[in-house]
Q: What sequence folds into this?
Protein backbone atom coordinates (compact mmCIF):
# COMPACT_ATOMS: atom_id res chain seq x y z
CA UNK A 1 0.00 0.00 0.00
CA UNK A 2 1.34 3.39 -0.93
CA UNK A 3 0.43 6.19 1.44
CA UNK A 4 1.24 9.53 -0.04
CA UNK A 5 1.89 12.65 1.97
CA UNK A 6 -1.34 14.08 0.59
CA UNK A 7 -3.41 11.17 1.76
CA UNK A 8 -4.53 12.32 5.16
CA UNK A 9 -7.12 9.64 5.67
CA UNK A 10 -5.37 7.97 8.56
CA UNK A 11 -7.00 4.93 9.98
CA UNK A 12 -8.14 6.75 13.07
CA UNK A 13 -10.72 4.81 14.99
CA UNK A 14 -8.92 2.57 17.46
CA UNK A 15 -10.83 -0.63 16.92
CA UNK A 16 -11.47 -3.33 19.49
CA UNK A 17 -8.27 -5.15 18.73
CA UNK A 18 -5.96 -2.16 18.61
CA UNK A 19 -2.43 -3.04 17.70
CA UNK A 20 0.43 -0.61 18.12
CA UNK A 21 2.13 0.66 15.01
CA UNK A 22 5.71 1.82 15.25
CA UNK A 23 7.69 3.35 12.43
CA UNK A 24 11.47 3.05 12.72
CA UNK A 25 13.83 5.25 10.74
CA UNK A 26 17.15 3.45 10.56
CA UNK A 27 20.34 4.82 9.11
CA UNK A 28 21.76 2.95 6.16
CA UNK A 29 25.24 2.39 7.54
CA UNK A 30 24.77 1.13 11.09
CA UNK A 31 21.23 0.54 12.31
CA UNK A 32 19.69 -0.83 9.14
CA UNK A 33 22.56 -3.26 8.81
CA UNK A 34 22.07 -4.10 12.48
CA UNK A 35 18.39 -4.87 11.89
CA UNK A 36 19.42 -6.90 8.87
CA UNK A 37 21.78 -8.87 11.07
CA UNK A 38 18.92 -9.53 13.50
CA UNK A 39 17.00 -10.98 10.57
CA UNK A 40 19.88 -13.05 9.27
CA UNK A 41 20.48 -14.35 12.78
CA UNK A 42 16.79 -15.31 12.96
CA UNK A 43 16.16 -13.21 16.03
CA UNK A 44 12.52 -12.53 16.71
CA UNK A 45 11.24 -9.01 16.98
CA UNK A 46 7.78 -7.53 17.01
CA UNK A 47 6.23 -7.23 13.56
CA UNK A 48 4.37 -4.05 14.62
CA UNK A 49 7.57 -2.18 13.81
CA UNK A 50 7.91 -1.01 10.21
CA UNK A 51 11.35 0.03 9.07
CA UNK A 52 12.14 2.96 6.82
CA UNK A 53 15.74 3.17 5.70
CA UNK A 54 17.31 6.63 5.53
CA UNK A 55 20.88 7.36 4.49
CA UNK A 56 21.67 9.02 7.80
CA UNK A 57 19.72 10.06 10.89
CA UNK A 58 20.95 13.56 10.03
CA UNK A 59 18.62 13.29 7.03
CA UNK A 60 15.71 12.79 9.40
CA UNK A 61 13.54 15.82 8.94
CA UNK A 62 11.36 16.18 12.07
CA UNK A 63 8.51 16.50 9.58
CA UNK A 64 8.87 12.73 8.97
CA UNK A 65 8.11 12.07 12.62
CA UNK A 66 5.07 14.36 12.57
CA UNK A 67 3.83 12.82 9.35
CA UNK A 68 4.22 9.26 10.63
CA UNK A 69 2.26 10.09 13.77
CA UNK A 70 -0.42 11.84 11.75
CA UNK A 71 -0.85 8.98 9.32
CA UNK A 72 -1.34 6.27 11.88
CA UNK A 73 1.86 5.47 13.79
CA UNK A 74 1.67 5.38 17.57
CA UNK A 75 5.40 5.62 18.06
CA UNK A 76 8.56 6.44 16.14
CA UNK A 77 12.07 5.08 16.57
CA UNK A 78 15.05 6.92 15.16
CA UNK A 79 18.22 4.88 15.18
CA UNK A 80 21.69 5.79 13.98
CA UNK A 81 25.36 5.04 14.45
CA UNK A 82 26.90 5.39 17.89
CA UNK A 83 28.25 8.87 18.72
CA UNK A 84 31.54 9.34 16.94
CA UNK A 85 30.79 6.61 14.41
CA UNK A 86 28.55 8.49 11.96
CA UNK A 87 29.39 7.72 8.36
CA UNK A 88 28.95 11.43 7.68
CA UNK A 89 30.76 12.53 10.84
CA UNK A 90 28.06 14.69 12.42
CA UNK A 91 24.68 13.41 11.24
CA UNK A 92 23.75 11.52 14.39
CA UNK A 93 24.50 14.54 16.58
CA UNK A 94 22.13 16.53 14.44
CA UNK A 95 19.49 13.86 15.00
CA UNK A 96 20.19 13.93 18.73
CA UNK A 97 19.48 17.66 18.94
CA UNK A 98 16.43 17.43 16.72
CA UNK A 99 14.91 14.61 18.72
CA UNK A 100 15.47 16.52 21.96
CA UNK A 101 13.67 19.56 20.56
CA UNK A 102 11.02 17.46 18.84
CA UNK A 103 10.15 15.73 22.12
CA UNK A 104 9.42 19.11 23.67
CA UNK A 105 7.18 19.95 20.75
CA UNK A 106 5.33 16.65 21.03
CA UNK A 107 4.71 17.36 24.68
CA UNK A 108 3.31 20.79 23.77
CA UNK A 109 0.89 19.14 21.36
CA UNK A 110 -0.30 16.79 24.08
CA UNK A 111 1.52 13.81 22.63
CA UNK A 112 3.56 11.74 25.06
CA UNK A 113 7.25 12.39 24.23
CA UNK A 114 8.03 8.73 24.95
CA UNK A 115 6.43 8.02 21.59
CA UNK A 116 9.64 9.27 19.98
CA UNK A 117 12.74 7.29 20.84
CA UNK A 118 16.31 7.80 19.71
CA UNK A 119 18.78 4.93 19.95
CA UNK A 120 22.25 4.10 18.70
CA UNK A 121 22.65 0.67 17.11
CA UNK A 122 25.75 -0.43 15.26
CA UNK A 123 25.91 -2.89 12.36
CA UNK A 124 26.98 -5.66 14.72
CA UNK A 125 24.21 -5.15 17.27
CA UNK A 126 21.38 -7.22 15.84
CA UNK A 127 20.33 -8.29 19.32
CA UNK A 128 20.15 -4.69 20.42
CA UNK A 129 17.82 -3.92 17.51
CA UNK A 130 15.50 -6.80 18.40
CA UNK A 131 15.47 -5.65 22.03
CA UNK A 132 14.80 -2.04 21.06
CA UNK A 133 11.93 -2.97 18.75
CA UNK A 134 10.30 -5.20 21.34
CA UNK A 135 10.80 -2.74 24.15
CA UNK A 136 9.33 0.11 22.10
CA UNK A 137 6.25 -1.91 21.19
CA UNK A 138 5.83 -2.81 24.87
CA UNK A 139 6.03 0.85 25.81
CA UNK A 140 3.56 1.91 23.11
CA UNK A 141 1.23 -0.88 24.17
CA UNK A 142 1.27 0.49 27.71
CA UNK A 143 0.72 4.04 26.46
CA UNK A 144 -2.14 2.95 24.22
CA UNK A 145 -3.21 4.56 20.96
CA UNK A 146 -1.95 8.09 20.37
CA UNK A 147 -5.46 9.50 20.79
CA UNK A 148 -5.37 8.70 24.51
CA UNK A 149 -2.55 11.13 25.42
CA UNK A 150 -2.94 14.36 27.37
CA UNK B 1 -30.97 44.31 -24.57
CA UNK B 2 -29.13 44.10 -27.85
CA UNK B 3 -25.83 45.70 -26.93
CA UNK B 4 -24.02 44.14 -24.01
CA UNK B 5 -22.66 46.70 -21.64
CA UNK B 6 -19.11 46.00 -20.65
CA UNK B 7 -19.31 45.30 -16.95
CA UNK B 8 -16.43 45.43 -14.56
CA UNK B 9 -15.30 42.24 -12.86
CA UNK B 10 -16.86 41.82 -9.43
CA UNK B 11 -14.72 41.84 -6.30
CA UNK B 12 -15.78 40.85 -2.80
CA UNK B 13 -13.81 41.17 0.43
CA UNK B 14 -14.78 39.50 3.66
CA UNK B 15 -13.44 39.08 7.16
CA UNK B 16 -14.10 36.11 9.38
CA UNK B 17 -12.14 35.43 12.59
CA UNK B 18 -9.54 38.15 12.13
CA UNK B 19 -8.29 41.31 13.75
CA UNK B 20 -9.03 43.68 10.89
CA UNK B 21 -5.37 44.14 10.02
CA UNK B 22 -5.85 42.61 6.58
CA UNK B 23 -8.56 45.17 5.84
CA UNK B 24 -6.22 47.98 6.83
CA UNK B 25 -3.52 46.39 4.71
CA UNK B 26 -5.80 46.61 1.67
CA UNK B 27 -6.16 50.34 2.30
CA UNK B 28 -2.37 50.59 2.74
CA UNK B 29 -2.10 50.46 -1.04
CA UNK B 30 -3.17 54.10 -0.64
CA UNK B 31 -4.32 55.96 -3.75
CA UNK B 32 -4.13 52.74 -5.75
CA UNK B 33 -7.41 51.82 -4.07
CA UNK B 34 -8.92 54.14 -6.68
CA UNK B 35 -7.38 51.96 -9.39
CA UNK B 36 -8.99 48.97 -7.69
CA UNK B 37 -12.31 50.77 -7.79
CA UNK B 38 -11.75 51.62 -11.43
CA UNK B 39 -10.90 48.05 -12.35
CA UNK B 40 -13.46 46.23 -10.18
CA UNK B 41 -17.02 46.53 -9.14
CA UNK B 42 -16.77 45.98 -5.38
CA UNK B 43 -19.95 44.10 -4.50
CA UNK B 44 -19.34 43.16 -0.88
CA UNK B 45 -16.98 44.57 1.72
CA UNK B 46 -18.56 44.74 5.19
CA UNK B 47 -15.78 46.80 6.72
CA UNK B 48 -16.03 49.59 4.16
CA UNK B 49 -19.27 49.37 2.18
CA UNK B 50 -22.91 48.92 3.06
CA UNK B 51 -23.79 45.75 1.19
CA UNK B 52 -25.53 43.09 3.25
CA UNK B 53 -25.29 39.34 3.34
CA UNK B 54 -28.73 39.12 1.69
CA UNK B 55 -27.27 41.01 -1.30
CA UNK B 56 -24.69 38.26 -1.66
CA UNK B 57 -27.34 35.58 -1.20
CA UNK B 58 -29.35 37.17 -4.03
CA UNK B 59 -26.46 36.80 -6.48
CA UNK B 60 -26.12 34.00 -8.98
CA UNK B 61 -23.64 31.27 -8.10
CA UNK B 62 -20.24 32.23 -9.45
CA UNK B 63 -21.31 35.81 -10.05
CA UNK B 64 -18.46 37.27 -8.01
CA UNK B 65 -15.25 37.04 -10.03
CA UNK B 66 -12.86 37.09 -7.11
CA UNK B 67 -13.31 37.04 -3.36
CA UNK B 68 -10.50 37.94 -0.97
CA UNK B 69 -11.41 36.15 2.26
CA UNK B 70 -9.43 37.03 5.36
CA UNK B 71 -9.82 35.53 8.80
CA UNK B 72 -9.93 32.02 10.13
CA UNK B 73 -13.03 29.91 10.70
CA UNK B 74 -13.81 30.02 14.41
CA UNK B 75 -17.60 29.85 14.60
CA UNK B 76 -20.69 28.84 12.64
CA UNK B 77 -21.09 32.33 11.18
CA UNK B 78 -17.55 32.26 9.75
CA UNK B 79 -18.31 28.89 8.30
CA UNK B 80 -21.63 29.89 6.73
CA UNK B 81 -19.99 32.91 5.12
CA UNK B 82 -17.13 30.79 3.83
CA UNK B 83 -19.57 28.36 2.23
CA UNK B 84 -21.71 31.17 0.81
CA UNK B 85 -18.80 33.09 -0.68
CA UNK B 86 -17.28 29.92 -2.07
CA UNK B 87 -20.51 29.31 -3.94
CA UNK B 88 -20.86 32.86 -5.21
CA UNK B 89 -17.22 33.41 -6.19
CA UNK B 90 -15.43 32.00 -9.21
CA UNK B 91 -12.08 32.46 -7.51
CA UNK B 92 -11.76 32.28 -3.73
CA UNK B 93 -8.52 33.57 -2.21
CA UNK B 94 -7.46 32.79 1.35
CA UNK B 95 -6.15 36.25 2.08
CA UNK B 96 -3.73 36.70 4.96
CA UNK B 97 -2.33 34.31 7.50
CA UNK B 98 -5.61 33.56 9.35
CA UNK B 99 -7.42 32.28 6.28
CA UNK B 100 -4.23 30.64 4.99
CA UNK B 101 -3.13 28.74 8.10
CA UNK B 102 -5.01 29.87 11.21
CA UNK B 103 -2.67 32.56 12.53
CA UNK B 104 -3.09 34.01 16.03
CA UNK B 105 -6.74 32.87 16.49
CA UNK B 106 -5.64 29.27 15.94
CA UNK B 107 -3.24 29.46 18.89
CA UNK B 108 -6.32 28.66 20.94
CA UNK B 109 -6.22 25.20 19.38
CA UNK B 110 -3.66 24.41 22.09
CA UNK B 111 -6.52 24.56 24.58
CA UNK B 112 -10.18 23.62 24.59
CA UNK B 113 -13.34 25.51 23.79
CA UNK B 114 -14.46 25.18 27.41
CA UNK B 115 -11.18 26.58 28.75
CA UNK B 116 -11.35 29.51 26.32
CA UNK B 117 -14.91 30.40 27.32
CA UNK B 118 -14.09 29.99 31.04
CA UNK B 119 -11.19 32.38 30.72
CA UNK B 120 -13.10 35.00 28.75
CA UNK B 121 -16.36 34.90 30.73
CA UNK B 122 -15.19 33.97 34.20
CA UNK B 123 -11.49 33.81 35.03
CA UNK B 124 -9.66 36.68 33.36
CA UNK B 125 -8.75 39.47 35.82
CA UNK B 126 -10.75 42.06 33.90
CA UNK B 127 -13.96 40.02 33.96
CA UNK B 128 -16.76 40.72 36.45
CA UNK B 129 -19.49 38.20 35.80
CA UNK B 130 -20.84 36.95 39.16
CA UNK B 131 -23.84 35.24 37.56
CA UNK B 132 -21.59 33.47 35.09
CA UNK B 133 -23.59 34.67 32.11
CA UNK B 134 -22.50 32.87 28.96
CA UNK B 135 -23.32 33.54 25.32
CA UNK B 136 -26.31 31.49 24.20
CA UNK B 137 -26.87 30.32 20.69
CA UNK B 138 -30.62 30.96 21.13
CA UNK B 139 -32.33 33.45 23.40
CA UNK B 140 -36.10 33.84 23.47
CA UNK B 141 -37.30 37.42 23.93
CA UNK B 142 -40.77 38.96 23.61
CA UNK B 143 -39.67 40.33 20.26
CA UNK B 144 -38.55 36.99 18.93
CA UNK B 145 -35.61 34.61 18.99
CA UNK B 146 -32.12 36.04 19.12
CA UNK B 147 -29.29 33.94 17.75
CA UNK B 148 -25.54 33.94 18.19
CA UNK B 149 -23.11 31.89 16.15
CA UNK B 150 -21.99 28.57 17.60
CA UNK B 151 -18.41 28.63 18.86
CA UNK B 152 -16.46 25.66 17.52
CA UNK B 153 -13.91 23.60 19.41
CA UNK B 154 -11.12 24.29 16.92
CA UNK B 155 -10.09 27.18 14.71
CA UNK B 156 -9.68 26.14 11.10
CA UNK B 157 -8.05 27.65 8.08
CA UNK B 158 -10.31 28.49 5.14
CA UNK B 159 -9.24 25.49 3.07
CA UNK B 160 -10.16 23.16 5.93
CA UNK B 161 -13.74 24.30 5.38
CA UNK B 162 -14.16 25.03 1.68
CA UNK B 163 -12.20 24.63 -1.54
CA UNK B 164 -9.67 27.45 -1.93
CA UNK B 165 -8.10 28.56 -5.20
CA UNK B 166 -5.19 30.72 -4.06
CA UNK B 167 -3.39 31.81 -0.95
CA UNK B 168 -1.92 35.17 -0.01
CA UNK B 169 0.23 34.84 3.12
CA UNK B 170 1.19 37.49 5.64
CA UNK B 171 0.03 38.98 8.89
CA UNK B 172 -0.99 41.17 7.27
CA UNK B 173 -0.01 40.77 3.61
CA UNK B 174 2.25 43.67 2.72
CA UNK B 175 0.71 46.46 0.66
CA UNK B 176 3.10 46.10 -2.27
CA UNK B 177 2.29 42.40 -2.42
CA UNK B 178 -1.45 43.05 -2.28
CA UNK B 179 -1.09 45.45 -5.16
CA UNK B 180 0.98 42.88 -7.07
CA UNK B 181 -1.79 40.32 -6.59
CA UNK B 182 -4.50 42.73 -7.71
CA UNK B 183 -2.42 43.71 -10.75
CA UNK B 184 -2.06 40.04 -11.63
CA UNK B 185 -5.82 39.63 -11.36
CA UNK B 186 -6.43 42.66 -13.56
CA UNK B 187 -3.95 41.29 -16.11
CA UNK B 188 -5.77 37.98 -16.14
CA UNK B 189 -9.22 39.50 -16.46
CA UNK B 190 -8.41 42.33 -18.85
CA UNK B 191 -5.61 40.94 -20.96
CA UNK B 192 -6.38 37.25 -20.87
CA UNK B 193 -3.18 36.23 -19.06
CA UNK B 194 -3.34 32.59 -17.92
CA UNK B 195 -4.39 31.82 -14.38
CA UNK B 196 -1.67 30.58 -12.05
CA UNK B 197 -2.01 26.89 -11.10
CA UNK B 198 -4.70 26.27 -8.51
CA UNK B 199 -3.36 26.21 -4.98
CA UNK B 200 -0.59 28.70 -5.75
CA UNK B 201 0.69 31.05 -3.09
CA UNK B 202 0.43 34.54 -4.54
CA UNK B 203 1.97 37.77 -3.38
CA UNK B 204 5.05 36.18 -1.86
CA UNK B 205 8.52 35.01 -2.79
CA UNK B 206 9.69 31.48 -3.42
CA UNK B 207 12.61 31.47 -1.02
CA UNK B 208 12.99 32.09 2.70
CA UNK B 209 12.97 35.27 4.71
CA UNK B 210 16.75 34.86 5.21
CA UNK B 211 17.24 35.45 1.48
CA UNK B 212 15.77 38.92 1.85
CA UNK B 213 17.58 39.72 5.08
CA UNK B 214 20.50 42.13 4.80
CA UNK B 215 22.24 40.95 7.95
CA UNK B 216 25.55 39.09 7.72
CA UNK B 217 25.35 35.38 8.37
CA UNK B 218 28.18 33.27 9.67
CA UNK B 219 28.52 29.60 10.48
CA UNK B 220 25.88 29.24 13.17
CA UNK B 221 26.93 27.89 16.55
CA UNK B 222 24.33 28.57 19.18
CA UNK B 223 25.27 27.99 22.81
CA UNK B 224 22.52 30.07 24.38
CA UNK B 225 19.16 31.43 23.30
CA UNK B 226 18.30 34.94 24.40
CA UNK B 227 15.06 36.88 24.15
CA UNK B 228 15.01 40.18 22.26
CA UNK B 229 14.76 42.31 25.40
CA UNK B 230 17.77 40.68 27.02
CA UNK B 231 20.45 41.99 24.69
CA UNK B 232 21.09 44.87 22.37
CA UNK B 233 21.66 42.98 19.14
CA UNK B 234 24.43 43.87 16.73
CA UNK B 235 22.65 45.75 13.92
CA UNK B 236 24.56 44.02 11.13
CA UNK B 237 24.81 40.42 12.28
CA UNK B 238 22.27 37.64 11.83
CA UNK B 239 19.91 37.62 14.81
CA UNK B 240 19.93 33.84 15.02
CA UNK B 241 23.75 33.91 15.14
CA UNK B 242 23.32 36.13 18.20
CA UNK B 243 21.02 33.59 19.85
CA UNK B 244 17.74 35.38 19.17
CA UNK B 245 15.09 32.93 18.00
CA UNK B 246 14.36 34.16 14.49
CA UNK B 247 11.91 32.21 12.32
CA UNK B 248 13.57 33.42 9.11
CA UNK B 249 14.97 30.02 8.02
CA UNK B 250 11.51 28.43 8.12
CA UNK B 251 9.52 31.34 6.68
CA UNK B 252 8.60 32.20 3.11
CA UNK B 253 10.08 35.35 1.65
CA UNK B 254 7.92 38.18 0.40
CA UNK B 255 7.67 40.73 3.18
CA UNK B 256 11.09 42.25 2.47
CA UNK B 257 12.47 41.10 5.84
CA UNK B 258 10.71 43.95 7.63
CA UNK B 259 10.99 42.82 11.24
CA UNK B 260 14.64 41.83 11.10
CA UNK B 261 15.56 45.14 9.50
CA UNK B 262 14.40 46.91 12.67
CA UNK B 263 16.08 44.49 15.06
CA UNK B 264 13.14 42.22 15.80
CA UNK B 265 13.33 38.52 14.94
CA UNK B 266 11.12 37.15 12.17
CA UNK B 267 7.97 35.71 13.70
CA UNK B 268 7.08 33.64 10.68
CA UNK B 269 3.92 35.31 9.40
CA UNK B 270 4.53 34.48 5.73
CA UNK B 271 4.11 30.81 6.50
CA UNK B 272 6.24 27.81 5.59
CA UNK B 273 8.71 28.13 2.72
CA UNK B 274 7.95 26.52 -0.66
CA UNK B 275 8.08 22.72 -0.65
CA UNK B 276 7.23 22.59 3.02
CA UNK B 277 3.81 22.34 4.59
CA UNK B 278 4.83 22.47 8.20
CA UNK B 279 6.63 25.53 9.46
CA UNK B 280 7.18 24.22 12.97
CA UNK B 281 8.96 20.98 12.16
CA UNK B 282 10.94 22.88 9.52
CA UNK B 283 12.10 25.21 12.27
CA UNK B 284 12.95 22.30 14.56
CA UNK B 285 15.16 20.94 11.79
CA UNK B 286 16.87 24.27 11.15
CA UNK B 287 17.30 25.22 14.77
CA UNK B 288 18.48 21.91 16.19
CA UNK B 289 21.12 21.71 13.47
CA UNK B 290 22.90 24.84 14.65
CA UNK B 291 22.95 24.19 18.39
CA UNK B 292 26.57 23.84 19.35
CA UNK B 293 26.62 20.76 21.55
CA UNK B 294 26.90 17.01 21.39
CA UNK B 295 26.00 16.32 25.01
CA UNK B 296 22.36 15.51 25.83
CA UNK B 297 22.38 17.44 29.12
CA UNK B 298 23.94 20.50 27.57
CA UNK B 299 21.54 20.33 24.62
CA UNK B 300 18.63 20.30 27.05
CA UNK B 301 20.08 23.25 28.93
CA UNK B 302 20.36 25.23 25.68
CA UNK B 303 16.86 24.20 24.61
CA UNK B 304 15.49 25.46 27.93
CA UNK B 305 16.15 28.90 26.45
CA UNK B 306 13.29 28.33 24.01
CA UNK B 307 10.50 29.46 26.28
CA UNK B 308 7.46 28.40 24.26
CA UNK B 309 8.29 26.02 21.41
CA UNK B 310 4.75 25.43 20.14
CA UNK B 311 3.72 29.07 20.34
CA UNK B 312 6.92 30.21 18.69
CA UNK B 313 7.17 27.67 15.89
CA UNK B 314 3.44 27.61 15.12
CA UNK B 315 2.53 31.18 15.98
CA UNK B 316 0.88 31.54 12.58
CA UNK B 317 0.22 27.99 11.45
CA UNK B 318 -1.36 26.11 14.33
CA UNK B 319 -4.50 25.25 12.36
CA UNK B 320 -2.48 23.41 9.74
CA UNK B 321 0.18 21.84 12.01
CA UNK B 322 0.83 18.21 11.14
CA UNK B 323 1.15 17.27 14.80
CA UNK B 324 -2.24 18.81 15.53
CA UNK B 325 -3.56 16.25 13.04
CA UNK B 326 -1.75 13.52 14.97
CA UNK B 327 -3.06 14.72 18.31
CA UNK B 328 -6.57 14.97 16.83
CA UNK B 329 -6.59 11.23 16.37
CA UNK B 330 -7.92 11.30 19.89
CA UNK B 331 -11.64 11.54 20.58
CA UNK B 332 -12.63 15.18 20.62
CA UNK B 333 -15.39 15.15 23.22
CA UNK B 334 -14.43 17.39 26.10
CA UNK B 335 -13.66 14.94 28.90
CA UNK B 336 -14.74 17.14 31.80
CA UNK B 337 -18.05 18.40 30.51
CA UNK B 338 -18.90 15.84 27.90
CA UNK B 339 -19.48 18.84 25.65
CA UNK B 340 -19.86 17.66 22.12
CA UNK B 341 -19.79 21.05 20.46
CA UNK B 342 -17.10 19.95 18.07
CA UNK B 343 -15.74 21.28 14.89
CA UNK B 344 -17.78 19.35 12.33
A:
Amino acid sequence: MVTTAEDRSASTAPSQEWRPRVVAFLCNWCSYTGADLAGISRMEWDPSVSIVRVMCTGRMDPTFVAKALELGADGVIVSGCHPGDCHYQEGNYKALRRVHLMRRLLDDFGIDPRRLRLVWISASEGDRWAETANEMVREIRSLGPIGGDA
Amino acid sequence: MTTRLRTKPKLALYWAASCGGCEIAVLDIEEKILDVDAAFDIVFWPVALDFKVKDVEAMEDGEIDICLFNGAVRNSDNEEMAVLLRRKAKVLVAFGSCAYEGCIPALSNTTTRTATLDWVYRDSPSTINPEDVRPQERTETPLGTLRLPAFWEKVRSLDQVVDVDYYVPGCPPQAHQIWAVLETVIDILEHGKPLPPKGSVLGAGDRTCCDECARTREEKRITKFVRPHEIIPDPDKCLLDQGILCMGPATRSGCGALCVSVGMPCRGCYGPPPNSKDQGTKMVAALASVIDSKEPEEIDRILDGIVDPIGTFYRFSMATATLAGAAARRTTVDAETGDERLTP
Summary: Residues 115-152 of chain B form one domain. Residues 175-191 of chain B form the longest helix (17 residues).
